[in-house]
Amino acid sequence: MRQEISVLALIKGKERFVFVYDEDSREKLIDSIRNQAADPDVSLTWFDAAVLTERARLQAQTPSTIREVGVRD
């Protein structure tokens, strides 16, 4: 069985946050996004984290042929 790979991206000014993950690593992805939002040295905000984690959850429910893969700030 083929494992589908998902891409989640946030463009924030000159910065790019790009996450590549599969179904089995979705929860680790969400933890990683939250950890980055908590890190004062990373410009990812809690709002950004909320948007990205919601998109990751929605991607799991949406057929891959019509997925939106990027979020623009």
From TrEMBL:
Top-rank lineage group of the source organism: Bacteria
Name used for this protein in its record: Uncharacterized protein
Taxon lineage: Bacteria, Pseudomonadati, Planctomycetota, Planctomycetia, Gemmatales
